[in-house]
């Protein structure tokens, strides 16, 4: 098909545009016109419609079109909330009922403030594990052993321990929610972009390993020692293995049977999904024999004194939760053709956590499995979240008294089976090996650091390493000299394209990364290397030549004066006739001959051969800044130095293809002067080339047809 493709042509005829002329033609707006004031931005961010998206979509809600799909979807998701909420509460080291609270209150808050129509807010594996690491660190079992007088017994005060762990989880959640709200209000929604997809997938994969190890004690019915800090996963796994001879067989059998049943039922669900209006609630069926809940929790103020001890964990929870939320939200928004506001999502998630924390909930974010169910079962709006919350509410109020005790072995089995999708992410290693070695390094470092350093330190180490890879790539970009594609106005790397032709007398230089403080010095060195000009040596050489030329001129002037005195019949000051013999011997410099000029010219070529290209072979250098999206003060100083240094050796410098934001930063940085004006900036590389041809070498440079370009029609 490609061999039969037809190509069209277009011809454009216009004047060569430098930046000053471009601004005149396009009537460029001022900085104040394009950047609203702080007052206007605060007014927009605090407007009722943007702060309460429910006021936008609820008046337009059609019960006839959306009511039944949202109801079916909400019931399906609500049924999933029940077993997941209780099972994931174990990961947070909290009583199962608090998992149901977490599935109720935050979901109701999100309905009013969220902008995604398909994500299901509630408990999530990774956040549950992160909360569990905090609660167990600040409320270890050893601190709640019962005292009998002065003696400490081996009996554990479970009620006191769980009560304090709930306080720790609530305080951490409220603080994390407040952090999210503040970040959202200051338009810091882009913070989630620092968690790249390889990083998030590796982090959740390692978190799944932590979840598995945390549930082994329930699967085997053993009581291993609780470890914290770095390598706690290794120590816990070692302790569990040492206790395997003491496995409680009935518990192990119940866990194994539950896992087999769950896996088989989930596979059956996948097979019959096209024919089923809603998925079979296999987790709930597994729990039907026994499960415990209680009454609704009453609001209470969290223990503010704990904020100082959990601020690091709260920040990690805020960032990870938001990253998962915005990635899922944007995925569904793109699929269904609506927009998700990243800053409003941050505020919505923060309010869900903050309000939820007052009702003894722990940190929430959307779950991939529940969100997929909400979307695939026909959910249209956030009203599906209302239906799912009602299911959880009814369970808490009406069904709780029917059950007495929750089988933790079965809940652990539910956790195991639900982690299956995360363990499939190990296939990322093969994919990344083929596509990007650097992303693979990010994946492996994230996975290893999260396993060894725990979730909080692992996240910090992972983000640090990911940012270092960005800095590394911007510090060592690809530098290239561009050549013209004959018959077009296109310019490509002459080293990677055979047909690219270098413009005589003009060097076009481009970096694959923006210029900033970390690579500005390297940028200057690369420019010197690619241009083949050793500026410092050439400046010294030029000054020496200028000094020699001045000495020749002074000597020539003295000789001319002596000859004039001689012709007048006087006695020249030289008194000797050596200068006359020099003239007779052939020193005709002052007589207009070009023989010495020719010899001097050849000597210069020999001397400059050690410095690279001839100075008269390059008269202009064009810096292509099309890849630069910002420029800082260090880079501006570097650019000034480039202009000044190359001017010393009579090489003109021009810049091309600057973005408007870069031009603004150049203006604010005081880059433009009387000698460096906007006439040195051009709209495109080709504009700059044409100017150089007309200005410094039109007669000696073969001209291409710049206005005829082949394109796909």
UniProtKB/TrEMBL annotation:
SUPFAM superfamilies recorded: SpoIIaa-like
Topological relation to the membrane, as annotated: Multi-pass membrane protein
Subcellular location: Membrane
Transmembrane parts of this sequence: 88-113, 119-139, 168-190, 202-222, 243-265, 306-329, 444-472
Major site of localization recorded for this protein: membrane
GO cellular component entries: membrane
Listed name of the protein: Solute carrier family 26 member 6, like 1
